[in-house]
TrEMBL record:
One Gene Ontology cellular component annotation held by this UniProt entry: cytoplasm
Keywords per UniProt: Coiled coil, Cytoplasm, Metal-binding, Phosphoprotein, Secreted, Signal
C1q domain mapped to chain residues: 64-203
Organism: Coilia grayii (Gray's grenadier anchovy)
Protein name (record): C1q domain-containing protein
Needed co-factor(s): Mg(2+)
Length: 203
């Protein structure tokens, strides 16, 4: 298959050399041409098969592999100075400022991210504490289970804490940032307390 032209040429030369004088040269030419056409035909069929395979692969990628998921949010929209907490019972943070939400996997009315496909996702979040003493922190959770925590103790002034995780999620898994009981964070129009995530790749 690699050098069919050369092989055919040798074949033709062989036929030519072995040809009896009585045999018609035109007939040999015809045989050579026929072999060449057969060779072209088989190469064309192989290339058509390759094209079909590629088209199927592209279709698959479009349907399953090209998923784009990214969100980026901040707790407050245009507040000057807004504490969240401390509460007696912990609660999921509901982020008000949406920077981006491609794939609509982040629900801004609940604060929950729902994995649209099985895959590896990357999340990070940060919290700011400001003014007076407080416990500053939040958990990043999967399906209500703590994964990682950002935490700091505030004496005075301000402090921030952040964390992140890469994790395999099943389709439908829910991720949120949870403010534990008796913790307090702050955000304002500068956007200190943020949450972001994206799909790295499907599995
Ligand atoms: C967000 O969650 C609420 C409450 O579960 C639901 O009613 C709403 O349809 C969701 N929004 C989107 C865009 O999925
Ligand atoms: C908050 O985090 C930023 C970097 O993200 C850092 O530059 C700053 O010093 C931190 N502030 C406090 C009070 O920890």
């Amino acid at each position: 298959m690699k050098t069919p032209g050369a092989v055919l040429l040798l074949l033709w030369l062989g036929l030519l050399a072995g040809a009896a004088e009585s045999e018609d040269i035109d007939l040999l030419k015809l045989k050579y041409l026929r072999a060449q056409v057969q060779d072209f035909e088989s190469r064309l069929q192989a290339s058509e098969k390759k094209t079909r395979d590629l088209q199927n692969e592209i279709k698959n990628l479009k349907e399953n592999g090209g998923k784009k998921v990214v969100f980026s949010v901040s707790l407050e929209k245009d507040a000057l100075y807004e504490h969240t907490g401390p509460f007696e019972i912990g609660k999921t943070l509901v982020y008000k400022q949406l920077f981006i939400n491609i794939g609509d996997a982040f629900n801004s009315s609940t604060g929950f991210f729902t994995a649209p496909v099985r895959g590896v996702y990357d999340f990070s979040f940060s919290v700011l504490g400001y003014g007076g003493s407080a416990r500053v922190g939040a958990h990043l959770r999967r399906n209500g289970q703590n994964l990682v925590m950002a935490y700091a103790t505030l004496d005075r002034g301000d402090i921030n804490a952040s964390n992140g995780v890469s994790v395999l999620l099943e389709k439908g898994d829910k991720v949120d940032v949870y403010l534990p009981a008796e913790h307090r964070i702050l955000d304002n129009y500068h956007h200190h307390s943020t949450f972001r995530g994206h799909l790295l790749f499907q599995m």
